[in-house]
Amino acid sequence: MSRSNSASGGLSRARIGWLRWFSGLGALLLLLAHATQRVELQPLSALERYLYDQRLAWAAPNETDPRIVVVDIDDRALLEHGRWPWRRGLLAELVTRCFEQEGAVLLGLDLVLAEADTSSGLAALERLANGPLRDNPAFVSQLQTLRPTLDEDGLLAQALTRHPVVLGFYLADAAANNTRSAALPAPLFDTGAPGLSSLLALPDWRGHGGNLAQLQAAAGQAGFLNAIADSDGLTRSSLLLARQDEAVFASLPLRLAQIALNISATLPRFAPDGRLLGLQLDGAKRGSRWIASDGQSRVLLPFRRLSADFKHYSAADLLSDRLPADALRGRIVLLGSSAPGLLDQRATPLAPLYPGVAVQATVLAGLLDGNLAHEPAYAPALQALQLLLIAGALLLALPRLSLTAGSLLVLALLLATLGLNLFAWQTWREAWPLAGPLSLLLALFGLHLLLAHLGERGARRRLTRLFGHYVPAALVAEMSQRPEQYSMASRNAELTVMFADVRGFTGISEGMPPQELAELMNEYFSVMAQIIGAHRGTVDKYIGDAVMAFWGAPLDDPDHARHAVQAATAMQGCLAALNRRFNARGWPALRISIGINTGQVVVGDLGSYERRAYTVLGDAVNLAARLQALCAEREADILIGERTYAAIPNLQATPLGEQFLRGRAAPLQVFQV
After folding, report:
1. Are residues 590 and 656 in the same domain?
2. Is 514 inside any structural domain?
3. 455 and 509: one domain?
4. Domain extent for 296
5. Residue whose C-alpha is closest to residue 191's, from 268, 132, 92
6. What is the pLDDT of residues 101-130, one digit of tens each?
7. What's the CA gap between 628 and 63, in Å, rounded?
8. Mind listing the pLDDT tens digit for each residue in 58-107?
9. Which of 321, 344, 369 finishes a domain?
């Protein structure tokens, strides 16, 4: 019988357990495959990026960095000084003003100056001087006089020679462009040098766009400008190093930081397996510092809030002497462009349009502070460990905990995961993965709630099927709040048992047609069963014209004796109204005898292998039946045993003294209600 109950009453506890482990381990294995980069779950990667952006925004500083200033070739500068590219003489004037008039200490150009400037017409004049007008001494002499002022590239080269300026260049992926144009600076490292062969693991950028050789020679220093965008188009990270063939170059921010910090040596550090761990910067100005990165030299950008990242001034104001006093003095200046037409805009987690030059400034600020974050190499293993701990804790603990305790456990794990993640970010500047652990937490808790709901619904169905024929729906609903406490298994218990019999039923049945007799008894039994159920009783069975019921099982009822007596008086009380309905239909009036007794019984699923029922057995049951039979002899409506009487303080009942009941040798104290 129990097997059929499980099959038809919903999910059994065993099936729920198997489903919990199968689903939970399936989710764990899928997330482990993602964590260890065996597969990529795109929604989880998108969630990881979103959580990273929220953490970045939460931790972003809200004060302006005073060390770095951005001079912007913006729309106003283009309006005042003409479209881009500007003549090199104007750039030379801008460079000179930065240092000699405004007092800047270092200048980085977020620009690539790859082609010669022919805007002055010097090349055409020289062709004339070497051609048709070579025999014109006046022309040749005048050209010699004007050449220094007409050599735009020479003017800029002179300015670059006199001042500390770092140029910019870009590298190109071979898949997109392997063209190599103009000149590159001397590399930072050569992978052929002893101990540096591991740098060959860096991506190889096959193409480049450098600077005019004359300008590169004049400046001496240059760094690449490449920005790295994630798959969603947002820029969250930057490379410190990039390789072309055996040459390894530094980024523009790294070159600026080396000069600003007076770095005497830059040393890459490697893990035992050859993976790059970061750069050691040794210098005299601020001592040594460690810049951790991932194996590709990638660092995460420490964005500031857009409203207060760096001071931005228009190049038009610099060239026209409109800058505030000491705006550039003692500061590092980055020259770039935010003009939309020059296409140097980036999308970042904090701003949909962010000037590329400000991205370079952000990396530089992180290098100066030594607080660039990175994703550690052990991130996959860390995430796998978190997933295993969370899965183990929840799969083992949740089935054993109440809903409240389970919710508190999940909340504690959630807060611990978030707290450790934020601690690693703030203290060690490490970006730990978060989407996988949070997803597993929520998935396992959601699975637990779903299975608890299915188990509860199945338990309610089983209770309804098991006890619905004996106990009214209201009591079944009450039992379903704690379904694990109820079963059909046999047990010993103290209960109160009732037998209610129709007096003179033989005569009544002889005087009525069978169909009408059936209708009468069905209506009578329905009314009596409703009263028994309303008083928390369980209908055991109908024995001919008799009703057998008991109180105290399956639903515990400490006051079972009182409720049985109250049900009996209500049954007797309803007979008058019931008999009036019967008389209106020409049926005889009924009179019932009720016997009630309290005592130890066996209650549970009893019977043969073929047919079983939820019932009670025991001497107390027999005594209740004998008391019902005694009612006819004593012309009583309700008789109760001495234990029932003792269980109900202040009960209004008449003692009938000791009575000998059929089948018992010893007398029993009997009371009439």
Report:
1. yes
2. yes
3. no
4. 71-369
5. 268
6. 999 999 999 999 999 988 766 666 667 667
7. 92
8. 988 888 999 999 999 999 999 999 998 999 999 999 999 999 999 999 99
9. 369
pLDDT, position 639 = 97
pTM of the complete model: 0.72
**Residue 357 located in a structural domain:** yes
Helix (H) or strand (E) holding 59: helix 42-59
Does the structure show a pLDDT above 50 at 2? no
**Same-domain status, 235 and 219:** yes
| pLDDT above 70: percentage of residues in the chain | 88
**CA 231 – CA 428 distance, rounded (Å):** 26
Taking the CB of residue 428, how many other CB atoms lie within 10 A of it? 13
**Residue 140, token pair as written in the block:** 């040749």
Confidence grade of residue 250 (pLDDT, cut at 50, 70, 90): very high
Last residue of a domain, one of 319, 342, 369: 369
Q: What H or E segment, with its residue span, contains residue 534?
A: helix 514-534
Do 230 and 335 reside in the same domain of the chain? yes
Question: Is-contact 230 49, C-beta < 8 A?
Answer: yes
Position of tokens 């220094």?
Answer: 148
Provide the pLDDT for residue 9.
42
Structure tokens at 359: 């991205």
Q: Are residues 460 and 476 in the same domain?
A: no
Number of domains in the chain: 3
252 occurs within a structural domain: yes
Question: What distance in Å separates the CA atoms of residue 35 and residue 618, rounded to the nearest whole number?
Answer: 64
Judge if 458 and 486 occupy the same domain: no
146 contacts: CB under 8 Å, gap ≥ 6: 125
pLDDT band at 610 (very low <50, low <70, confident <90, very high): low
Mean pLDDT of all residues in 440-459: 80
Q: What is the per-residue pLDDT for 227? A: 84
| Rounded average pLDDT over 372-390 | 95
Rounded Cα–Cα distance for residues 234 and 613 (Å): 70
Q: At what angle do helices 42-59 and 435-467 cross, to 10 degrees?
A: 120
Dist CA 415 CA 396 (whole Å)? 20
The Cβ of residue 399 has, within 10 Å, a number of other Cβ atoms equal to 17
What is the predicted pLDDT for the residue at 556? Answer: 84
- pLDDT beyond 90 at 146: no
Q: Which two tokens stand for residue 494?
A: 């103290």
Cα distances (Å, whole numbers) of residue 6 to 20, 459, 518, 640, 659: 17, 9, 35, 40, 48
Q: How far apart, in whole angstroms, are the C-alpha atoms of residue 515 and residue 628? A: 27
Nearest to 242 by CA among 265, 220, 221, 225: 225
- Least Cα distance to 523 among 584, 594, 579 occurs for 579
d(CA 22, CA 44): 21
pLDDT score recorded for residue 4: 38
Distance CA 26, CA 23 (A): 5
The number of residues in the chain equals 673
Same-domain pairing of 390 and 536? no
**Is residue 493 in some structural domain?**
yes
- Dump the DSSP string for 447-506: HHHHHHHHHHHHHHHHHHHHHTTTS-HHHHHHHTTSGGG--S--EEEEEEEEEEEETTHH
Question: What is the pLDDT at residue 647?
Answer: 95
Shared-domain flag, residues 14 and 163: no
Contact, 310 vs 64, CB < 8 A? yes
Q: Measure the CA–CA gap between 26 and 150, rounded to whole angstroms.
A: 74
Assign 484 a pLDDT band (cuts: 50, 70, 90): low
